[in-house]
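From the pipeline queue, job 12 of 40. The input is one protein chain; the requested action is below.

Action: predict structure.
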Amino acid sequence: MPLVEITYAPHVPHAVLKELAAMLPHAVSVAVECPEEPYDGDLQPGDVELRFRPRGSFDVSGMDIVVEVRSKWFESRAANRQDRVDDLCKAVVDACGLAEVGVYLSLPIAAWAQS
């Protein structure tokens, strides 16, 4: 289950954030799909967790939007992680139309439980 944090600048329009909220669950699922956790296109509650955060007054960033994705490490995921993050970054740029977008993919050794 990927955890996704989206930090955005104050000038980013609400419509852009709404578009990101709509497209990111699928785009992130495609980006982290692997044999150990295949993506069947049928997202269920808990499959992707999005958290939107406005940039704070003491934050330092030159980006309009930064998307941080954390998803469990698997060798098959890690082998081509740069391609995965490049594709996800392109999808985010295409969806939001902003010039300054960053995407960070972290694959920690982790576990997840859900009730």
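Job complete. The mean pLDDT is 94.
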